[in-house]
Amino acid sequence: MLGRLNHVALAVPDLAAAVAAYRNTLGAEVTAPQALPEHGVTVVFVNVGNTQIELLEPLGEESPIAAFLEKNPSGGMHHLCYEVDDILAARDQLKAAGARVLGDGNPKIGAHGKPVLFLHPKDFFGTLIELEQS
To answer: N or C terminus: fewer CB in 10 A for the chain?
Structure first.
């Protein structure tokens, strides 16, 4: 079911500082910031060859990233994103196996313009999992 690792998402308290660290200190290629109001975040992608690092900053006080940063003020790993060929088939297979899909169970459009779903971290050893249709 799982395809390649699409990205590792890091919640950051200061997106501009994180971008500067990746671009200036590590010499990475970094995309322009993209606001995603439906997800409550502003994102930037850092290209690292075989995958990407997604830097997430809260967009508004109701952002799930704001809640994450309250518990982790310095930031940290938020989720892993894996590609799947058919997100609805993957959702149905996972639900049949007992995994919990967050939200209403219907995919939303993610930062790459493709359908995404999130799986409950308690079902995956404390790690929030995002699935993105490839």
So the answer is: N
To the nearest 10°, report the CA torsion of 55, 68, 38, 54: 10
Q: Which CATH number covers residue 127?
A: 3.10.180.10
The boundaries of the domain holding residue 99 are 2-133
CA distance 46 to 32: 10
Which stretches does DSSP call E strand in 12-51? 29-30, 34-36, 41-47
The predicted model scores a pTM of: 0.94
- Beta-carbon neighbour count of residue 34 at 10 Å? 12
Element (H, E) at 60: none
The H-assigned helical ranges of the chain are 15-20, 64-71, 87-96
Cα-based angle 93, 94, 99 (whole degrees, multiple of 5)? 155
Q: Which residues are known catalytic residues? A: 130
How many structural domains is the chain composed of? 1
